[in-house]
Specification:
By secondary structure, this protein is an alpha+beta fold. The chain has five helices and six strands; from the N terminus they run H-H-E-E-H-E-E-H-E-E-H. Helix 2 runs parallel beside helix 5. It starts with a helix and ends with a helix. This is Luciferase domain-containing protein.
């Protein structure tokens, strides 16, 4: 972990720069480009891992909606998803996973070991998320001000990104569309 932090500290790697992500390929977002997120971007905790933002005010209704999104998707589509502790989050949050016996995952998912079919998880303390999107959708999310790239780590695909916590129901609508785009990318099924 220390080597990773030092490598990132001395690199010129800008996690807000989406230029390395492909502009072509599949998109599962309902509208592209996404609306621009209202500024300012949240303050990010200055460490490489775990990737976090400083908590911002969020209404109880929006927080409830955010934290029920992953379990609600899992219970509504048991043939697509498993709900289990997120391996990428150190098993401290529920992760939404594509079922191992799923017949429709895209070939990138089948070949990527680093995420083990994980689609998304919400960070309970400050309400941000990590999601696995197509590179085209990840680029759109970053350029719209909704998130940032995950630090380059072996085995983690470039579409695995950090999404900022929604501050209200309007932002939650966009975050929900981002999570559903991740579902489409990983499973090949739109929900």
């Amino acid at each position: 972990m220390t080597k990773l932090r030092l490598k990132h500290f001395f690199s010129t790697n800008n996690l807000l720069d989406a230029s390395s992500l492909q502009q072509t390929g599949p998109s599962y977002l309902p509208s592209a480009p996404l609306p621009q997120r209202r500024n300012p971007r949240p303050h990010i905790i200055p460490r490489i891992l775990p990737q976090r933002q400083y908590p911002e005010p969020i209404s109880p209704a929006t927080r409830s909606r955010l934290h029920s999104l992953i379990p609600d998707l899992a219970s509504a589509h048991p043939g697509l998803f498993e709900l289990k502790p997120s391996h990428t989050e150190g098993k401290t949050a529920d992760g939404l996973y594509a079922r191992e016996d799923l017949k429709t995952p895209n070939s990138v998912v089948k070949e990527t070991v680093g995420l083990a079919r994980e689609i998304a998880h919400v960070h309970p303390a400050e309400n941000s998320l990590h999601v696995w999107l197509s590179e085209r959708d990840a680029k759109n999310v970053i350029e719209g001000g909704w998130g940032m790239r995950f630090p380059p780590v072996g085995g983690v695909p470039p579409g695995w990104i950090f999404v900022y916590a929604p501050r209200d129901d309007g932002e939650m609508d966009v975050v929900e569309s981002i999570v559903k785009a991740a579902v489409g990318w990983v499973t090949g099924v739109r929900v």
